[in-house]
Amino acid sequence: MSPASHSAVWTSCLLLALLAPAAHGAARTPAAPAPPAAATAAATPERDPEALAALDRMGAALRALKQFSLTSDASMEIVLDDGQKVELDGVVTYKVRAPNQLFLELRSDRQLRQLFYDGKALSVYAPRLKYYAQVEGLSSTLGELVEDASTRYGIDMPLADMFLWGTDKAPKTAIRGALHVGGGTVDGEAIEQYAFKQDGVDWQLWVSKATSLPKKLIITSLDDPALPQYRAQLRWDTRTPVPAAAFAFKPPADASRIKLVPVAVAVVDAEQEN
């Protein structure tokens, strides 16, 4: 194994917990054939204007936040090769200052991962493993960081859509069905519940009536017959100031640095090894 390949393997381990909400594992069986056109037309879901307007309000509320802390109790279903579903629970914590500072922590019984971005350097750290990776010389906004981290390094941040709603990176044209389910409460707060359909996923959203911020999210993957789900319940703090120190990463003396290998390079190295 070459040094670059070795770094790629460790980077994969380091970033294992940074999973996108829709990444529930590969489907075990081929997708069902498309239904006849007539049946498809008959089954085309409606796009409720109120549900779509709620997304606009949520996007505007998210874009208006100058700083916030967010804690989310999250669970993800993983489908094993034999079809059994296993649920993995964890806590996602964000600290954010617009337009370009972010701290992310993913904590579970099995793993602890942290990501720091101070507007110039992106650092990923595994405190229990004592490994970290870092990319310097950046100047990305949070929306740009989310996209670049995913496409360039394969880092898909949980709940990353909150940095994209209300921008042209999250077009409503991708939504095939939108439904206003009704009112209710989450954590004692009045909400409105909505359900949406897109290619490959169904998702539900509970939005605060007072703030228009999302309070709960369920994403169901339709690409797997087992229909695995990602669930997140969100608790926001938009009042407590987030200090600049929250985004600064100083590696501990006993931590080892590894290279954050771009996805394209890691693929080439793997092919050459084979």
UniProtKB/TrEMBL annotation:
<protein>
    <recommendedName>
        <fullName>DUF2092 domain-containing protein</fullName>
    </recommendedName>
</protein>
<keyword id="KW-0732">Signal</keyword>
<dbReference type="InterPro" id="IPR019207">
    <property type="entry name" value="DUF2092"/>
</dbReference>
<comment type="subunit">
    <text>Monomer.</text>
</comment>
<dbReference type="GO" id="GO:0015031">
    <property type="term" value="P:protein transport"/>
</dbReference>
<dbReference type="Pfam" id="PF09865">
    <property type="entry name" value="DUF2092"/>
</dbReference>
<dbReference type="InterPro" id="IPR029046">
    <property type="entry name" value="LolA/LolB/LppX"/>
</dbReference>
<keyword id="KW-0653">Protein transport</keyword>
<feature type="signal peptide">
    <location>
        <begin position="1"/>
        <end position="25"/>
    </location>
</feature>
<keyword id="KW-0813">Transport</keyword>
